[in-house]
């Protein structure tokens, strides 16, 4: 299974955008401070719009041609979870399960399971807007990591995440990394020290690949200085 980015664009007098990579099953961390470049990658990867120059391909097919057949394969967890504040936690789980193409019965079973796995079964009837932000974040990550989608996109997954939820996230990532393409956008230097990861640095429109060395901290500051 492959997800391919191929976007090289240099409209004078603007700087060069050079984003070329092929992702397969496993965890890939995309590090860096290039917010504009990261937004561009989100648009490409979630198929919000096709790139003006270049291609994004999934399983060998142009995602612009695949349309909804591609977006059905993505599960996305944003940096700041946003839900209508009046819906209950259980309604949110049912709704998001149905959008993942589950039947009504499957969505109900999955929602009950996620309530127990998250440790919030007593909060099922509580409106989302009344939940602590850490609980909302935890639920959103669980819903994404437990989806059937083969491509998982996590944007700054450590924001508002308590230690227990972090441990559960690492466990789920370890369970799924051999069968899913997992892209993690983060500014943390080495977010998963105990898990095998590939690394890319996004800086000034350029995507650079590198490997973790046998040290506690990768040369992140050196990469950004290049």
UniProtKB/TrEMBL annotation:
Signal peptide region: none
Specify whether ATP-binding is a keyword of the entry: yes
Q: Where are the transmembrane segments?
A: none
* Pfam families, sorted: ABC_tran
Instruction: Name all ABC transporter domain ranges.
Output: 27-158
UniProt keywords (A-Z) are: ATP-binding, Nucleotide-binding, Transport
GO MF annotation, one: ATP binding
Keyword set includes RNA-binding:
no
UniProt superkingdom: Bacteria
Q: Which Gene3D superfamilies is this protein grouped with?
A: P-loop containing nucleotide triphosphate hydrolases
Q: Do you know which InterPro entries this protein is assigned to?
A: ABC_transporter-like_ATP-bd, ABC_Transporter_VariousFunc, P-loop_NTPase
| Family matches, as PANTHER family | ABC TRANSPORTER ATP-BINDING PROTEIN ALBC-RELATED
Q: What is this protein called?
A: ABC transporter domain-containing protein
Q: What is the originating organism of this protein? A: Hominifimenecus microfluidus
């Amino acid at each position: 299974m492959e997800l391919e980015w191929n976007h090289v664009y240099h409209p004078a007098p603007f700087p060069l955008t050079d984003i070329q990579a092929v992702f397969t099953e496993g965890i890939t961390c995309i590090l860096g401070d290039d917010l504009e470049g990261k937004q561009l990658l989100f648009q490409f990867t979630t198929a919000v719009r096709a790139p003006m120059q270049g291609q994004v391909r999934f399983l060998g097919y142009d995602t612009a041609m695949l349309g909804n057949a591609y977006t059905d394969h993505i599960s996305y967890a944003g940096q700041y979870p946003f839900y209508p504040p009046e819906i209950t936690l259980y309604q949110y789980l049912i709704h998001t399960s149905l959008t993942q193409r589950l039947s009504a019965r499957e969505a109900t079973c999955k929602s009950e399971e996620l309530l127990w796995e998250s440790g919030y079964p007593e909060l099922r009837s509580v409106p989302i807007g009344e939940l602590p932000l850490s609980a909302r974040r935890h639920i959103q990550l669980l819903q994404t990591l437990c989806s059937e989608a083969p491509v998982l996109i996590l944007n700054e997954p450590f924001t508002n995440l308590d230690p227990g939820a972090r441990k559960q996230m690492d466990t789920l990532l370890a369970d799924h990394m051999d069968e899913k393409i997992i892209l993690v956008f983060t500014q943390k230097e080495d977010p998963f020290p105990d898990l095998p990861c590939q690394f890319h640095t996004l800086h000034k429109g350029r995507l650079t690949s590198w490997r973790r060395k046998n040290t506690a901290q990768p040369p992140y500051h050196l990469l950004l200085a290049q």
